[in-house]
Design brief:
The complex is a heterodimer. Helices cover about 70% and strands about 5% of the residues of chain A. Chain A has 14 helices and four strands. Chain A has helices at about 1-30, 35-50, 60-80, 85-105, 105-110, 130-155, 155-165, 170-175, 180-205, 215-230, 235-245, 255-280, 285-295, 300-305, and strands at about 115, 125, 125-130, 205-210. Chain A has a two-stranded antiparallel sheet with strand order 1-4. The longest helix of chain A is centred in the N-terminal third of the chain and has 27 residues, at about 1-30. The radius of gyration of chain A is 21 Å and the shape is globular. Chain A starts with a helix and ends in a 6-residue tail after the last helix. In chain B, helix 6 packs across helix 8 (about 185-210) and helix 9 (about 215-230) runs parallel beside helix 11 (about 260-275). Classes of the chains: A mainly alpha, B mainly alpha. Chains A and B meet through helix 4, helix 10 and helix 12 of A and helix 3, helix 4, helix 9 and helix 11 of B. Chain B: It is found in: Cell membrane.
Chain lengths: ~300, ~290
């Protein structure tokens, strides 16, 4: 039981890292990419193929995985950013299915659905992390770093550019910043972060096959980001705790094994709808702050002049 | 060569099924601006309902399927999209809600029906020969019905008052509000048409592909891409793109193993999107404009 909880806890961390990548693309820049599982898959496959060659060096695998997924993300961005908004989702979904087909069909390299096993233990700074506990610790450290970095990214100029693109691409363009370039960067950055999740996944599980990286993983990552709160840096961790850790707890109920999977899917879907529905009733933090400031009577003159109109 | 023609025609006929889904989605997108992804669940729902009732009486099965399809589609509009649209006027939340409904729909169907494909029996599951070509009767019938539905939809949009109302709303939502047009009615009819078109699609999907809870997913993704490739506002473009995908899917088997089928279709889609990001419909327009200016 304790072992099970430890595994779930570690998987939560891995999915949080993968979802943090999608949070950059979807949450900050507002680009609905349904191809995020591709980058997780590339990270995992690079690790499975390269890991044994380099003795499981985590750094080499991570850098190679990030490099490969950045290259693939550029292809995605080049083709798919030619269509706008919701259509990008269709194009990225097409891309996802195309790459899934390659994962399954390119048997000589990926071993398709049979999968690749025998991935070595990760090696970091000369020490081999051979126990699940040390790996779990490593994963949570990486998750914390990723969350911290995305939070910093969000506050910096790049993050502000992303948010500006999400809110109003036309206004962003009139201010002399290219929305297309910004989206491009968001996709590439998101891909690099997500591939890191794939690397850690492959090391932790020790076995990967193509079925793990099809579009249902993309849907799961999207659910994590939306349920956790779009564009909130800690959102992926919260969403992952709900979607990866809490929802599978229904398997502890005495249900027939065939109903558990669909029931989980049902809950993801319901959570997405609920998250969207509830959002309409919760004003965003900015509006709340304005309202609070106005009520306190302490609204500063510049705030009155430039902020949104708030009636006291 | 003969095999290739055979496969291409098989794919073309299967494309009729994608056309039914694609024009439904295209009408909804144009009139309401909602990307109704949950339409894939409607297709699965129709296929499963029909397969479950087919043994009793075929007319009863068709009627119940129509009822179920309309109920699901209209409930999606009235109970999900409208309340959300009331609070959040931007399109992204609606899109996410539709995405959620798609997942919920697929999961619920898996819980209610078994995951095993059910193939309803029919005497039409035999071939008819045209020279060297062998064609399944059921596929020919499906294509004929799809073509008839397409034509009926075009006539409805072109000739009736409601059709012209829908075209007006599709042209400009704000302007139709200014003129006091009953926009809600146009939206409701759009969803209703899509729900009705899903009925023949679901019935033939049950015969041709078998009825299982995720049967609608691949047609949905094809239709989805066809709507984008066809170009915004072009039902004809969406239908043509859907047929093209059917042919590509059929021909792909000729050169590659069946596991590559979907991948090839979407590779073709991405390549065409590169050539013409606003859909194939604009390709001709641009040429015409260039010719005029020259």
């Amino acid at each position: 039981m304790l072992e099970y909880l430890a595994t779930v806890g570690t998987l939560t961390g891995i999915f949080a890292i993968a979802a943090a990548g999608l949070n950059i693309t979807l949450g900050y820049a507002g680009v609905f990419s349904a191809a995020q599982a591709v980058f997780v898959g590339i990270g995992a496959y690079v690790t499975a193929l390269l890991g044994p060659q380099v003795g499981g060096s985590l750094i080499i695998c991570a850098v190679a995985a990030a490099g490969c997924s950045v290259a693939v993300a550029m292809v995605l961005a080049l083709t798919s950013l030619r269509v706008s908004d919701e259509y990008f989702m269709v194009a990225s979904l097409a891309f996802q299915i195309m790459v899934s087909t390659v994962f399954t069909g390119w048997y000589s390299v990926t071993k398709g659905t049979d999968g690749i096993s025998g991935i070595p233990y990760p090696r970091l700074l000369g020490t081999e992390l051979s126990t699940p506990e040390t790996q779990s610790r490593l994963i949570w450290v990486v998750a914390a770093l990723v969350v911290a970095l995305t939070a910093v990214l969000r506050r910096g100029s790049v993050g502000r550019l992303f948010l500006a693109i999400r809110e109003d691409p036309v206004a962003t363009q009139t201010l002399g910043r290219s929305p297309t370039l910004g989206k491009y960067v968001a996709i590439v950055l998101g891909a690099a972060v997500s591939s890191l999740g794939g690397v850690l996944y492959a090391f932790y599980i020790g076995f990967i096959n193509s079925a793990a990286f099809d579009y249902s993983l993309s849907i799961q990552l999207t659910a994590i980001v939306i349920v956790g709160g779009i564009g909130w840096s800690l959102g992926p961790v919260v969403g992952s705790a709900i979607v990866v850790a809490a929802v599978p707890l229904i398997s502890l109920l005495d249900l027939p094994s065939t109903t558990v999977g669909p029931l989980e899917q049902l809950i993801y879907g319901a959570l997405i709808i609920a998250a969207v529905g509830v959002r309409g009733y919760i004003p965003s933090a900015v509006v709340l702050r304005e309202r609070w400031a106005a009520r306190a009577g302490g609204a500063r003159p510049w705030r009155r002049a430039h902020g949104p109109v708030v009636k006291p | 060569m003969h095999e290739l023609v055979q496969l291409a025609i098989g794919g073309f006929l299967l494309g009729g099924l994608y056309v039914l889904i694609a024009i439904g989605m295209s009408i909804i997108l144009n009139v309401t601006g909602i990307f109704h992804i949950a339409h894939g669940s409607t297709l699965s729902l129709c296929a499963l309902t029909f397969a479950a009732l087919e043994s009793t009486h075929i007319l009863l099965a068709v009627l119940v399927t129509t009822g179920v399809s309309l109920t699901f589609t209209m409930a999606g509009y009235e109970l999900l999209y409208r309340p959300i649209a009331k609070r959040q006027p931007t399109l992204f939340p609606l899109f996410l809600a539709s995405f959620g409904l798609w997942i919920v729909g697929g999961a619920a169907l898996t819980l209610i029906f078994s995951a095993e494909p059910v193939h309803p029996r029919t005497s039409l599951n035999s071939t008819v020969n045209f020279g060297d070509l062998y064609l399944l009767k059921i596929n020919l019938l499906a294509f004929a019905v799809a073509a008839a539905c397409y034509a009926a939809t075009r006539v409805f949009l072109a000739r009736t008052m409601t059709g012209s109302l829908m075209r007006a709303v599709a042209c400009s939502r704000d302007m139709s509000d200014v003129w006091g047009m009953p926009r809600r009615r146009a939206e409701r009819v759009a969803f209703m048409i899509a729900g009705l078109l899903a009925v023949p699609a679901g019935i033939f999907a049950a015969y041709v592909l078998g009825a299982y809870p995720t049967v609608g997913d691949t047609p949905l993704l094809f239709a989805f891409s066809a709507v984008v490739l066809g170009g915004l506002g072009s039902i004809r473009g969406a239908a043509a793109a859907a047929l093209l995908f059917g042919v590509v899917q059929g021909v792909a088997v000729w050169a590659l193993p069946a596991t590559w089928q979907d991948g090839v279709v979407f590779a073709v889609f991405l390549l065409l999107i590169l050539v013409s990001p606003r859909g194939l419909g604009t390709l001709g327009l641009r040429r015409r404009a260039e010719a005029r200016s020259a």
